[in-house]
Write a structure and sequence with these properties.
Immunoglobulin-like, Coagulation Factor XIII, Chain A, domain 1, 24 strands, about 425 residues, 7 helices, single chain
């Protein structure tokens, strides 16, 4: 049996700003500037489980400095494993990563990343795993804490966690795979490549059932028969011929033996993407409405009136292609930055309406982050208010919370600022 090894390289792939972990507790998103994934595998020559921890850091989230040979960046990673209530530190690994490249454009791209792997041997149970990244030059830190269930593989049969695969290759006769840590999948282009292990004392045929769910509605169901060896069998499989929209989906994998006894069932979430569309966009129709601050009514109507989904995507991408300052590259920084601001506005300014619809969200999306924010939440005999200052524009915007429930309204008109995205 050829062993499939995991290889870590610098690769071009889509990226967003979040840290994600899947376990029986589900996905938790944090204010982290990296992706992460924790995976259970049966340990070698041990009753403990091997937990692989992957850390993927996009280039545009770390600081590069000019060197004689090009550009260099460095950061440290700390992975800490605690018991469930975080009262005891059980294991910790700290290591440094260094990146050296020649091309400046690569340093500012969210499509380039560095990937790290560290493994821990742990007994079955629930743990709290904390990860932290510190940029060596900016000293900026980012961290994430997630509860994770380590599974027990001491029985006669079982299956590992499921890994989404970004790339598979063969080197010197051995299969090697690069994990898709971000879980962004271009289903139309590549399907859904998967890797997992089946553990069984006896060889024979097993049935592997794949299901895909959208909001718990089953939209895909297929079963394959595979021959497995005794011990560990590594399986690489690609689910093809999928027509998925933008957004979050769940894939479920179940393995059943010849006697219809379930060997194991696992689930994993992923984000279905379309080529050219930022990964933060999960609803095309909503993304079109969010163009209100950069497009005219006629431009929006032209896209919305297109009934065929593929044609609507084409019109939508054509709109952004016209605004691409670097059409010779795959990245469109205007496209990415606009929806990064939409995402931030939703995170910071939402109350009873979504943040992108609020006055603060509008100003933030159109003009970007202010140079200074002067907050006055508790002044006597005055309603809460904020003053945003943009020094290079010589502009000042005042927002007043008229209701006391975080509904800040703009009282300074935006003369001439409509569609002034910068």
């Amino acid at each position: 049996m050829k062993i499939i090894n995991i290889f870590l390289i610098i690769l071009f792939a889509p990226a967003i700003i979040s840290a994600q972990v899947e376990s029986s507790f589900g996905i938790e998103n944090r204010d982290a500037v990296y992706y992460q994934d924790f995976l259970n595998f049966a340990g070698e020559k041990s009753i403990q489980t091997r937990v692989d921890v992957f850390i993927q850091v996009p280039y545009n989230e770390i600081q590069f400095v000019k060197t004689e040979k090009g550009f260099a960046a460095g950061y440290s990673v700390t992975i800490s494993v605690f018991n469930e209530d975080k009262s005891t530190l059980l294991s910790e690994k700290t290591f440094n990563e260094k990146i050296e490249i020649k091309n400046f454009e690569q340093t500012i791209s969210g499509s380039n990343f560095n990937l790290s792997l560290r493994s821990f041997n742990l007994s079955s149970g629930t743990y709290l795993i904390r990860t932290e990244i510190e940029d060596k030059d900016s000293r900026k830190t980012s961290s994430s804490e997630n509860k994770f269930e380590v599974r027990d593989f001491t029985g006669s049969s079982g299956i590992s966690d499921m890994m989404l695969v970004a790339k598979k290759t063969v080197v010197d006769g051995s299969n090697k795979i690069l994990p898709n840590v971000s879980r962004n999948v271009l289903t139309k282009k590549e399907g859904i490549p998967l890797f997992f292990e089946v553990y069984k004392n006896q060889p024979g045929d097993v049935k592997i059932n794949f299901k895909i769910f959208e909001n718990e509605n089953r939209i895909y169901d297929s079963t394959e028969v595979k021959k497995i060896d005794s011990g560990t069998t590594q399986i690489f499989f690609t689910i093809k011929e999928l027509e998925l929209g933008l957004g979050n989906y769940i894939i479920q994998l179940a393995v059943v033996d010849a006697d219809d006894k379930i060997i194991g069932t696992i689930r994993k979430s992923f984000l279905s993407r379309w080529p050219g569309v930022p990964s933060s966009i999960k609803d095309l129709n909503k993304a079109i409405k969010q163009l209100v601050y950069i497009a005219t009514e006629d431009e929006i109507e032209k896209i919305e009136e297109t009934e065929n989904r593929d044609e609507k995507v084409k019109e939508y991408l054509n709109f952004w292609k016209k605004k691409d300052p670097t059409p010779q590259t795959e990245d469109n920084p205007i496209f990415d930055e606009y929806y990064r601001r939409v995402f931030y506005a939703n995170e910071k300014f939402s109350h009873y309406i979504e943040g992108w619809k609020t006055d603060r969200g509008m100003v933030f999306i159109i003009l970007g982050p202010p140079n200074n924010v002067d907050r006055h939440p508790f002044e006597f005999n005055t309603k809460p208010y904020e003053v945003w200052e943009y020094y290079d524009l010589n502009r000042q915007f005042v927002f007043v919370d008229e209701t006391g429930f975080g509904d800040y309204r703009l009282i300074t008109p935006m003369y001439g600022d409509t569609y002034r995205f910068r």
